[in-house]
């Protein structure tokens, strides 16, 4: 049976620079977990440690331990136990003590990841030395049973599959990796494409990402034996791109979907004191960046307050880290004193905090201008909470018939949709009940099985 080798270099690198996984990283980690559950003997993970042909194994147990720490480690004890500062105390991005805590957390995670990777490197050196010293079949067999620190070049076999599920676009020589895998190791190559936004919507992206993304896909995509996408909308974008670039694919892009993790707090757990009171807020889960369209929700909330009065408008909670291209947004929020407290920002919430945030909200909003899926939409439904979302790109695939949609470019349309929901609490309660009774969350195991079936890994 063939082995499926998963490149997690960019995931480990991201965790070394950020204190919480974002969208793509969540997909990679959950998909990795599901692949291990579906085919534990035929899925292994590797990271690049030097040149384009230098990969070493990473045990799933070590990865899962690191992911658990990043998912649940609070930004700081002080921030998690103290109430949110008044608008006068808020800085342009996050409250001062939270900014300091995020800096501490980032340094802590970099040290943790460095120690983790250093241990793997030391493990690799010691094992290679032993292999050189004891070049016997029996000893080579014992190396194959080791979890971490072994060379892919020594373990991979013809017919194995090497897959990229993340975003290693900074490796400009990745096409050399693929050619080595295919020509020298006789392996096949697959990749998961989350979206084509840097190609078709570059106005919402950082210039560096645009350059690295387009160059990477222009050289690597023609070499792919298997192309997977998170959604049918992304598959169509890939097909559009290859037509424009006159690239011939070995097979049609295969949508695998995206799973949803149920976010319900434990019944006996106490709600963190710094979170807003249940039923007092509307939730928007997302990294703060231009494409996610936070500015439109600010305009809508300001109009709600002006027309209804602050006492009759729930708080709008932004939950997520600050990303790129939102400097003007953050300055505006500071200038309006976060709409006198009717807008709040909870930076980098833990999984536990997210569970409580979803559980206590009236409903969620997701006005993003373009998505490869729309994970917060399916997470909202999985938590039994209604979602008002953008009608564009792949978002309706995530929300289905249980989500209500609006035009994300039309503030008046969003305002009408939100107002209608707020004006009929009985209908909102019935909508919530219908979600809890009928919604069937997409399963990560199904996503993983699509990959295993397409690559024939784990099959006799």
UniProtKB/TrEMBL annotation:
Residues 71-93 are annotated as: Disordered. Gene3D superfamilies: Glycogen Phosphorylase B. Pfam families: Glycos_transf_1. GO terms for molecular function: glycosyltransferase activity. InterPro entries: Glyco_trans_1 (IPR001296). Residues 275-434 form the Glycosyl transferase family domain. PANTHER family: BLL6006 PROTEIN, GLYCOSYLTRANSFERASE WBBK-RELATED. This is Glycosyl transferase family 1 domain-containing protein. It comes from Acetobacter aceti NBRC 14818.
